[in-house]
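Problem 12. The chain below contains 511 residues. Write out its predicted structure in token notation.
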Amino acid sequence: MSQPTNTGIWKVIGASSVGTLIEWYDFYIFGSLATVIASQFFPNTNPTAALLSTLATFAAGFIVRPFGALVFGRLGDLIGRKYTFLLTLVLMGGSTFAIGLIPSYETIGFAAPILVLMLRLLQGLALGGEYGGAATYVAEHAPANRRGYFTSWIQTTATLGLFVSLGVILLTRHSLDSDPEVSIRKFNDWGWRIPFLVSILLVVVSIYIRLKMNESPLFTKLKSEGKVSVNPLKESFGHKTNLKMVLLALFGATMGQGVVWYTGQFYAQSFIENVCKVDFDQSRTILIWAIVFATPFFVLFGSWSDKIGRKWIMMAGMLLAVFSYRPIYKELMTATDIPNRISAETPAVASVSRETRPLPDGSATLQITSSRYSFSTGMSFTEVKSDTLRNNVTTAGKLTYTEKKLDNPTYWKFVLLIFIQVFFVTMVYGPIAAFLVELFPTKIRYTSMSLPYHIGNGVFGGLTPFIATLLTTIYTQDALVGLWYPILIAAVCLVIGTLYISNKIDPNVND
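Solution.
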């Protein structure tokens, strides 16, 4: 069997990567706009409940990914890699576009969140078939001794998809009006739909590129020899030896990789925005810079895994995450602790505004005072006091600090702390495509590798933002309690992977 030329392999990677990047872009828009979507598609009487509902809907898209892996993995092993993950692209793009068209909760009531949920489930099914197809397709074109290097380029697309989604959101948010405040208000009202709608243009371009691709040479050879699997599901999960490898891939690699991935990027952004209360733009650009600096390490670790093996790079990433998460997030909180800063320096008052609103039962009036302050370092914040006036008696209420604009040193400290987390992501994620491909025979590879990958990432990883946020609402005294979920999952995976995964896998054994 002949391998493609150097130019040919880069065309394969380019065509696969563009489509995969767009699918991840489509998937990540929802998570990046969770707070805005919560106000659009759920009752706004309880913002925390609305956010949790949005995160649960976001998580639902991950939960169905294993089912997508079974459906599309089977198709990929029966009819080929090319047309299967072309189909997943169409489903993903169409669902994303449709979310941008759904009327708000105020317009159609509970039909809005139901429609969003249905489309999220479609997105999850499509993504369940996308990754396995793209990784398998590239791996089966690449030289066996350089699979880690070439498949690592596919690994960058998920992070780059998040990067592009954040960039489009920020660009849209600031381009709707010459007045920044008006532009932001328009974005929150209807402009948030634009990133969803423009994705259809990206999908059309990607479909055109993918239609020009040829089938994988390994699958073509298998098909010409009449050795294509008749029942990929039975061969993947009905045979004891292969099932053992599926379970080992899940509990010894992808489960931990999934929680490290979604903690380092999604939960990090949620924490910065909702716990640290950092300004919307800064919370996004912090992540963008961290992604820019860390992305090359996907390729570095993928290439390195060709030389020293996949196992220990992935295990090291999990180990570092387990011991670093709480110190990192504690530092994020300390850096934005306004009372601590006030004790060191008295901030200057920039502006004060007051709002009075009656409580729903009419028994009292809520007086909300918003005061804008700034420190000499350049950091600014809004102090919000909620006092209750009942029978001419004022009762002091909740005091919160919101809309924190970080000063330059603190901003770059945040970039560094998020970069460290994304660096862990590159360690566990860079080598994993080659690792999974080499575990399974060509004729059932699409099905066998897709399922553990999407259970690990979809169920264990995708639930991270929701479970971590939910834990903080239950155990309110510890803002870092949510981190115990990814720490525990990564630790269990680290132990199983260290004990049972081999670092010596012959790259040709299953071809």
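Discussion. The chain has 22 helices and five strands. Students who got a different answer should revisit the alignment rule from Section 12.3.
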